[in-house]
Amino acid sequence: MADLFTVANLANLGVLIFLQAVLGFDNLLYISIESQRAPLDQQAKVRRWGILIALVLRVLLLVGVVHLVDAFREPFFTIHTGVFDGAFNFSTLVFLVGGVFIMYTAVKEISHMLATDELGGGEAVPPKSAGKVVAMIVLMNLIFSFDSILSALAITRVMPVLTLAIVISALLMLVLSDTVSAFLKKNRQYEVLGLFILLIVGVVLLGEGGHEAHMHLFGYAIEPMSKATFYFSVAVLVVVDVLQSKYQKKLAARRVQPGS
């Protein structure tokens, strides 16, 4: 047990907690948005249960991924057509399927926001059952987890350190989920921003999966989006959205002034 409390393990734990917090932001964003599909009086409970169940499954996923990634490094199948080429193993398929699923979810939610029967406040669409929302939160949490788990395994293979980092990040998510959800309810315009961030996350996962699979389209290799580019893109989206929101409020205030 004393071997766990080495300087190296403590340093790795600090790095992993920071990594899980950063990579978990988009997950927290999704949880806050999706929980609003549940009945109003059950939304806080849905977030808590979704995160807690996902925490347990995430630890199990960590153990499973360690074995699956090692066991299935060899490609399940390869495709060589000249137009589309690639070799697909376990991790690449998870990245690609997860990326497509996240992009589909983001596009679907954006289309719901643009639907004419929701312009009056969204009452036209009946809420989902709490069970369905919890199931979606758990599923998406597992998809988001795969990227962070693979990144964590690149730092250390010490299971207690990895497990503790996941537990701490989930507890932080549990504490912040109600705050983020309340903010989005008061500032509905930022829901669109959150969904576009999820859309970019889907693109990132597709790039990671395509790169790992050595995919080529029309002879061009698929390259992953760097983390720096991803965070810069997200930062630009947030800054533009905040500035546009303030500008629209200023215009609205000017219109209501007498003589304007």
Please tell me about this protein's structure:
By secondary structure, the chain is mainly α. It has one domain. 72% of the residues lie in helices and 5% in strands. It contains 8 helices and 4 strands; from the N terminus they run αααββααααββα. The chain has a 4-stranded antiparallel sheet with strand order 1-2-3-4. The longest helix has 29 residues. It is globular and about 70 Å long.
Question: What is the structure about, briefly put?
Answer:
The protein has a 4-stranded antiparallel β-sheet with strand order 1-2-3-4.
Highlighted features:
single chain, 260 residues, mainly alpha, four-stranded antiparallel beta sheet, 72% helix
General shape: globular
Question: Mean of residue pLDDT?
Answer: 76
| Range of strand content | 5-15%
The string of secondary-structure elements, in order, is HHHEEHHHHEEH
Distance between the termini: 72 Å
Walk me through the topology:
Blueprint lengths: L6 H17 L1 H11 L7 H29 L5 E4 L3 E5 L1 H25 L15 H24 L5 H28 L2 H24 L3 E2 L2 E2 L5 H29 L5
Antiparallel strand pairs: 1-2, 2-3, 3-4
